[in-house]
Amino acid sequence: MKIKKELLLQFLKETAKTxxxxxxxxxVPLSVVEQMLNGEAVCxxxxxxxxxxxxxxxxxxxxxxxxxxxxxxxxI
Length: 76
What we know:
The chain has 6 helices and no strands.
C-alpha cells in the first residue's frame, strides 16, 4: 500500500501528533511511518493496522490508488 503523504502530513499536523506518536498508535516501528511519508509502499500487515486506526472509508481516502494501480473499491 502507498498513501498520499500530503494527506498524512496534514492529518498529523491537524491532530498535533508526532511521527513517533502515530507509529505508536499504529503499533509499528517509526521507520514504517517514515516509509509512508517518503511515498514508499508498506506491507499488508501495516496496511491492516493503518485501516484499523482510520476505518475503511477514512483510510481509503489516504491510499494512493493510482500509484498502486488499483481502482478505489470504496465509493468516496
